[in-house]
UniProtKB/TrEMBL annotation:
Cellular compartments annotated: Cytoplasm; Cytoplasmic vesicle, COPI-coated vesicle membrane; Golgi apparatus membrane
Pfam families: Adap_comp_sub (PF00928), Clat_adaptor_s (PF01217)
Membrane topology field: Peripheral membrane protein
Record keywords: Coiled coil, Cytoplasm, Cytoplasmic vesicle, ER-Golgi transport, Golgi apparatus, Membrane, Protein transport, Transport
PROSITE patterns named among the record's database cross-references: MHD
Protein family (similarity comment): Belongs to the adaptor complexes medium subunit family. Delta-COP subfamily.
Organism classification: Eukaryota, Metazoa, Ecdysozoa, Arthropoda, Hexapoda
The protein's name: Coatomer subunit delta
InterPro entries associated with the record: AP2_Mu_C_sf, AP_mu_sigma_su, Coatomer_dsu, Longin-like_dom_sf, MHD
Coiled-coil region list: 125-153
CDD domains linked to this entry: AP_delta-COPI_MHD (cd09254), Delta_COP_N (cd14830)
Keyword Transport appears in the UniProt entry: yes
Domain MHD: 248-489
Domain of life: Eukaryota
């Protein structure tokens, strides 16, 4: 079909549409326009008159659900900015003019285009950038050292030069000698500033020369990117508790676990991954040579892995974390990862709590939706639980029953079920609502998020001791268990 033909069909659509009536299609002699209003815009499908209009309406509904995935505002400028993302998504729905059998979750997966080669390339690129940045810092330190040495030499050479000038002039030996000591203190005072900044550099502070060196590279067109950890920090921080610990000791342990789970709407775990990490932070030097005793009561078969510098045999035999070289201390003032673990399964009982979403058509063109949750691991206490339920565009749900609170975000077409705490005292709850002009698949995928101060793995630190005399060391610890991705598809 030539471009002129398509432009002609689109130009004819506003003239054919009756503004005073609400329809879903309009026909001409050769084609049928199937359309749906989206606030100030229209989503239009142009088909032949022989096409099945029920299938066309279903396709149109899927198209309209894809747009909010990429466009926050239903405006022409926003759609134009995300045109390529929308084209990629539309291409997964229709291929060569025919509808593909896909749902919204599959479209998301296809458009993400997750590539192992890209991940490897990004990892190599980040390593190269990190090495380049370290070299820049070393170069900045070298320049600082050279400037300091030149400053010291400049003091001596200046004094000698002035005296030589005094000795060389036949008329007036006395006056240059009297004037030169007056000038020398001014020059000897100024190099004292680099000495102070050099001490700050040794202590690990950020030198101004490093910043200026990086800024100079940026001005010359070099791209200096921050490591990937710094980029992902805001995303992770938004999921973690924001209240800092006030009673942190000189030895502090942090146990962090993140959950990735995908569950089918009819049951069955498709993906379950748990990633855990224990980090150690030591503030003072006299606590740097220590061992940490862990109480491991895990019965699920979680795979534990120690840092390469940690003594593996000591960990296997005594469940203690200590360095291979006992005479070597742990680094000071930084979070050091000492133990990590990973757990994968497809067992339904591994889920900390389950969601059962049951939408059913009510015979009036809409759906009645019943959702219930149940806490399976009753030893856990889940905080800030949010269950996000997608809605059709323009739908206003009518909630008839709700344990907890709910929010309807009309701009995002989401009904948010909010539960501040889920524990053994309220291990189950339900939400019921009805939605007009909806079908059961409109309410998937559900996304769930929560945080917990109790670990999923039955693993905790119970004691810290000095390496030399096994005397106890006071330590503090914190635990956070949160969801990185939890979906019901």
């Amino acid at each position: 079909m030539p471009k002129a033909r398509i432009e002609g069909l689109l130009a004819a659509f506003p003239k054919l549409m009756s503004s005073g009536k609400q329809h879903t299609f309009v026909e001409t002699d050769s084609v049928r326009y199937v359309y749906q209003p989206l606030e100030k815009l229209y989503m239009v499908l142009i088909t032949t008159k022989a096409s099945n209009i029920l299938e066309d309406l279903e396709t149109l509904r899927l198209f309209s659900r894809v747009i909010p995935e990429y466009c926050r505002n239903m405006e022409e400028t926003d759609i134009a900015e995300n045109a390529f993302n929308l084209i990629f998504a539309f291409d997964e729905i229709v291929a060569l003019g025919y509808r593909e059998s896909v749902n919204l979750a599959q479209i998301r997966t296809y458009v993400e285009m997750d590539s192992h080669e890209e991940k490897v390339y990004q990892a190599v690129r980040q390593t190269q950038e990190r090495e380049a940045k370290n070299k820049m810092r070393e170069k900045a330190k070298e320049l600082q050292r050279q400037r300091m040495e030149a400053g010291k030499k400049g003091i001596k050479s200046t004094g000698i030069g002035q005296n030589m000038g005094g000795f060389g002039s036949s008329s007036g030996y006395t006056s240059p000698v009297i004037e030169s000591p007056v000038e020398i203190p001014k020059s000897t005072y100024t190099p004292a500033k680099p000495v102070t900044s050099m001490k700050a550099l040794k202590l690990g502070g950020k030198s101004r020369d490093v910043e200026s060196f990086v800024d100079q590279l940026k001005s010359e067109g070099e791209t200096v990117a921050t490591p990937a950890v710094a980029k992902t920090a805001p995303t992770t921080a938004s999921k973690l508790p924001t209240s800092p610990l006030s009673n942190t000791e000189d030895v502090h342990l942090r146990q962090e676990e993140k959950l990735i789970a995908v569950v089918g709407r009819d049951g069955g775990v498709q993906t379950f991954e748990l990633h855990g990490l224990v980090t150690l932070r030591i503030a003072v030097e006299n606590c740097a040579r220590i061992r940490i005793l862990l109480d491991n009561r895990d019965t699920r078969g979680i795979q534990l892995q120690t840092h390469p510098n940690v003594d593996k045999e000591l960990f296997k035999k005594k469940s203690q974390i200590g360095l291979k070289n006992p005479a070597k201390p742990f680094p000071l003032g930084t979070d050091v990862g000492v133990l990590k673990w990973r757990y994968q399964t497809q067992d339904d009982s591994a889920l900390p709590f389950t969601i059962n979403c049951w939408p059913s058509e009510n015979g009036q063109g809409g759906c009645d939706v019943n959702i219930e949750y149940e806490l399976q691991h009753t030893q856990l206490e889940l905080n800030d639980v949010n269950i996000n339920i997608p809605l059709p565009i323009g739908c206003s749900p009518v909630v008839t029953e709700c344990d907890g609170e709910y929010k309807h975000e009309s701009r995002r077409n989401i009904l948010q079920w909010v539960l501040p705490v889920i524990d053994s005292s309220n291990k189950s709850g339900a939400l019921e609502f009805s939605a007009a002009t909806a079908i059961p698949s409109d309410f998937f995928p559900l996304t769930i998020s929560f945080v917990s101060k109790q670990p999923y793995a039955d693993l905790k630190s119970i004691e810290a001791t000095h390496v030399d005399d096994d005397s106890p060391v006071k330590f503090s610890s914190e635990t956070v268990f949160y969801t990185e991705k939890y979906e019901i598809v």
